[in-house]
């Protein structure tokens, strides 16, 4: 699942409130957990998050399988910025972000331009 932090944060905070006091996680701990594990949420939160479910995309997979993450970076990014000329659909963009995140890259959205860019992953 790939969700913009603005959409994900309120849902994670609401789910965190349901956890007993001694198990509560910080937002950063929740995000780190979401990189490698399954988040359990109620049905209302699931309905909100459902639109962010990531499905494999054949065009992206063909590059990733043959050239790995470096192929994705070369095909879809110019320096650290997403190349808007690549003409990816929204599901394909989400899948690229998903693959990059699982390969130790973080992707964020610029507040002013709305463009995707790669950011260094926090080692903690």
Explain this structure.
By secondary structure, the protein is mostly helical. The protein has two domains: 5-52, no CATH class; 58-119, no CATH class. It is 49% helix and 10% strand. The protein has five helices and four strands. It has helices at 5-17, 27-36, 43-49, 58-76, 90-101; strands spanning 77-78, 81-82, 106-109, 116-119. The strands form two sheets. The chain has a two-stranded antiparallel sheet. Strands 3-4 form a two-stranded antiparallel sheet. Helix 4 crosses helix 5 (90-101). It is globular.
Features:
124 residues, mainly alpha, 2 domains, two-stranded antiparallel sheet, 4 strands, 10% strand
Helical residues, percent: 40-55%
Overall mean pLDDT stands at 77
Distance between the termini: 21 Å
What share of the residues does DSSP label as strand, in percent?
5-15%
Number of strands: 4
